[in-house]
Design goal:
Order of helices and strands: HHHEHHEHHEEEE
Shape: globular
Number of strands: 6
Radius of gyration: 17 Å
Structural class: alpha+beta
Number of helices: 7
Mean pLDDT: 97
Strand content: 5-15%
Largest sheet: 6 strands, mixed
């Protein structure tokens, strides 16, 4: 599929279904793109679609089936949008660091593809109120889903969830306790963490 060069072409691209409940249009919104009038359109739609399907089918669909509707905060970023965000200190990393992450249609330095979305789980916000309760969901995801990386943020416990061909299985947080919750080699990485998410619903697909 070619990069759209018309409004009709962008409409058609947005209608591409990535999974049962998600379409590409769900991930094209960007406050940076909207406010600064930078088109957030994939240069390589086929790669963006392929990576996005893995993200939706393997991670977002099971999350939504288990916890109810997800709120998508952000998803795909074009290279132009991300570069502008990085240059103007709008919480965007460099394009090289964001490849196979928020830039779905750009492979990383190892030639791997990946895709990231920032989501909120309203069920968690409504049922848990302690600052560190984000860890409950983090460990549930760690034990149940093939994520590549997670990063949690303070507002609404939004978190980046990444699918990647070579998952690193690392969880980071800007919420207390800040830093790395787990990664390969840490003593807490293996085994069950069910004590953290007692009372959570069982995985549904």
């Amino acid at each position: 599929m070619r990069k759209p060069n018309s409004m009709k072409g962008l409409e058609d691209l947005g209608r591409v279904r990535l999974s049962k409940n998600f379409f590409l249009r769900d991930f094209l919104h960007s406050e940076i793109a909207d406010f600064y009038r930078i088109p957030n359109i994939p240069d390589d739609p086929d790669l963006a679609i392929e990576a996005g399907k893995h993200l939706c089918e393997e991670l977002l669909e099971p999350l939504q089936a288990t916890f109810g509707r997800l709120h998508i905060r952000s998803g795909y970023r074009s290279r132009a949008v991300n570069e502008f965000g990085n240059r103007n200190k709008l919480n965007c990393s460099t394009n090289a660091a964001t490849a196979a992450d928020h830039i779905w249609d750009m492979r990383d330095a190892d030639g791997c593809m990946g895709a990231t979305a920032c989501v909120v789980v309203p069920w968690l916000v409504d049922t848990h109120d302690h600052e560190s309760d984000w860890q409950r969901l983090a460990w549930w995801i760690h034990d149940h889903l093939p994520y590549a990386s997670l990063c949690f943020f303070p507002k609404l416990w939004a978190f980046n969830i990444q699918w990647h061909e070579r998952p690193v299985r690392r969880i980071m947080s800007y919420v207390a306790p800040r830093g790395v919750l787990t990664k390969p080699g840490m003593a807490n990485h293996q085994g069950s963490h069910a004590e953290w998410y007692a009372g959570f619903p069982d995985l549904r697909r």
